[in-house]
């Protein structure tokens, strides 16, 4: 009888060990594995959505703006292109500023109600209040459209191009100021992107 009891104990122990091993090999992956799958390292789904990229064929990020787009050249606007507009984008707006200007930030360009299907502004946008495709506001000189960089001799300034993806058309009249544009955009910005160029004059 003692041998039978020992045999039963051994059989039960072996059966329990097999059952534990089977459960360990078939257990579903934990939540950490599920998060890693389909999500690049260091980037969440929320951060991925609404990431807009703004570039120019005229200069790279932090690079020098060619003189043709400044007061030393023709002073026309550079080509701009963007990608990554978030779902729900109904229009774009653009502001270009010089934060290094001697008397405070100088506005070089104000444009808005750019249609959502537009992803490129060709170089040399006409200096008109209403281009037929979108509207432009007043720059720091009080004129319509783009005005090129023109820093004091010997100084290098930064020129910040900021594109805004908005959840609606703003419906503003042509010729608004940058302050009026910012007020109208409040609460409507889905995403934004910046491109910074530099320019200096020797004399």
Describe this protein's structure.
Mean pLDDT is 81; it is low at 1-49. This protein has helices spanning 2-26, 31-36, 45-48, 178-185; strands at 53-55, 80-83, 91-98, 106-114, 120-121, 135-136, 156-166, 189-200. A hairpin with a 7-residue loop joins β3 and β4 (106-114). It is α+β, with helices and mostly antiparallel strands and 203 residues long.
Top keywords for this entry?
203 residues, three-stranded antiparallel beta sheet, 4 helices, 21% helix, 25% strand
Secondary structure: elements and pairs:
Blueprint: H1 2-26, H2 31-36, H3 45-48, E1 53-55, E2 80-83, E3 91-98, E4 106-114, E5 120-121, E6 135-136, E7 156-166, H4 178-185, E8 189-200
Antiparallel strand pairs: 1-2, 2-5, 3-4, 3-7, 4-6, 7-8
Oligomer: single chain
Principal-axes geometry comes out as globular
Rg on CA atoms, Å: 30 Å
What is the ordering of alpha helices and beta strands?
A: HHHEEEEEEEHE
- Hey, roughly how much beta strand do the residues contain? 25-35%
Class by SSE composition: alpha+beta
Count of strand segments: 8
Q: Report the sheet with the most strands, covering strand number, pairing sense and barrel closure.
A: 5 strands, antiparallel
Strand order of the largest sheet: 6-4-3-7-8
Number of helices: 4
- The end-to-end span amounts to 110 Å
Detail the poorly predicted runs.
Answer: 1-49
Summarize the amount of helix as a percent range: 10-25%
């Amino acid at each position: 009888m003692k041998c039978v009891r020992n045999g039963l104990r051994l059989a039960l122990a072996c059966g329990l060990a097999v059952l534990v091993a089977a459960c360990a090999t078939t257990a579903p992956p934990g939540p950490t594995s599920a998060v890693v799958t389909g999500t690049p390292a260091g980037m969440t789904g929320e951060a991925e959505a609404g990431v807009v990229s703004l570039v120019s064929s005229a200069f790279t990020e932090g690079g020098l703006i060619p003189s043709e787009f400044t007061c030393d050249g023709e002073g026309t606007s550079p080509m701009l292109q963007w990608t990554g507009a978030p779902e729900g984008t109904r229009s774009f707006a653009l502001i270009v500023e010089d934060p290094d200007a001697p008397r405070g930030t100088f506005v070089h360009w104000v444009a808005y109600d750019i249609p959502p299907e537009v992803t490129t502004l060709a170089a040399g946008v006409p200096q008109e209040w209403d281009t037929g495709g979108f509207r432009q506001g007043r720059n720091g000189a009080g004129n319509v459209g783009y005005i090129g960089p023109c820093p004091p001799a010997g100084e290098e300034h930064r020129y910040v191009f900021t594109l805004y993806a908005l959840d609606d058309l703003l419906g503003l009249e042509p010729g608004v100021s940058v302050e009026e544009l910012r007020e109208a955009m409040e609460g409507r910005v889905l995403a934004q992107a910046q491109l910074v160029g530099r320019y200096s004059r020797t004399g």
